[in-house]
Amino acid sequence: MNRRTFLGTMTAAAVFAPRLTRASESNRIEKIGVQLYTVRDEMKRDFDGTIAKVAAIGYREVEFAGYFGHTPQQVRALLDRNGLSAPSVHVDYQSLGDKFPQVIADSAVIGHRYIVNPWIDDAIRKDPDGWKRAAAVFNKAGEACQKAGLQFAYHNHHFEFIQVHGKYAYDILLEETDPKLVQMEMDLCWMTVARQDPLKYFARYPGRFPMVHVKDVKSVPPADKPGEPVDFEKVFPLMTAVGSGSIDWKHIFAHSGGAGIKHYFVEHDYPKQPFENIKASYAYLNSLRF
Fold first, then answer.
1. For the domain that residue 190 is a member of, what is the CATH number?
2. Does 197 map to a domain?
3. Half-sphere exposure of residue 132: CA atoms within 13 angstroms, side-chain side
4. What domain count does the chain have?
5. What is the span of the domain harbouring residue 229?
6. Confidence of residue 227 (pLDDT cuts 50, 70, 90)
7. How far is CA 282 from CA 46, 198, 230, 241, in A?
8. If 0-12 CB within 10 Å is exposed, 13-18 middle and 19+ buried, where does residue 91 land?
9. Worst-scoring range by mean pLDDT, 108-117, 172-181, 226-235?
């Protein structure tokens, strides 16, 4: 390579490198969502006003965890008035039985596309075979959802990352459920608390994570005993607005495509100032490029 060719190559590299960098970081979250559990106390006092405030911040998607005595028709009308959609709802484990047909019917009225179970009861988790039984329940719920044109999913905490029969309980759920019937809503904060790498699961189960919970933590406290989950009460005070903690969101979201992420829901379990928290989280995510 002569000097002129070399300089021409270097000039081209100098010109195109910034463009490539900008292109690689051009992705953003189009519709930022919030899990309404974050503002549950406000919703108890003023359901309509709280939804309006959420929309005024800029959120365009919400995830419900209870309707506080409102009918599906009232909830849908409120969403429509505020320019919001509710892609998903959290329902307890007991609702996956005889009550589930009504859950599906209500979800259809409101416009949910995902029905998510966020918690497996202690009695089931303490039984070594309980996780497989839960997987069977999830598959059945997934079949019912599929027939109605909906999708069932499971939301994790950190207690899924204990060893059961030589593997993580979370892996048992992933292996024992049909991916077409049961998808996952990954809580990225609890994954961090469990000292797990979300990217490994994204790579191992591509496309299986259509939703994520986006909440931050200042640091990860040590477990009291090796192999056991950290006490919840030690984690809650360390939660913080998204972008002000220790989680590298840009790194994680750069892999959103492979994971299959479509919906990003901000959450904080016990915020001291809920509206300030979700406002700061929205501002950070709205400016984030990855």
1. 3.20.20.150
2. yes
3. 6
4. 1
5. 30-287
6. confident
7. 21, 22, 28, 9
8. buried
9. 226-235
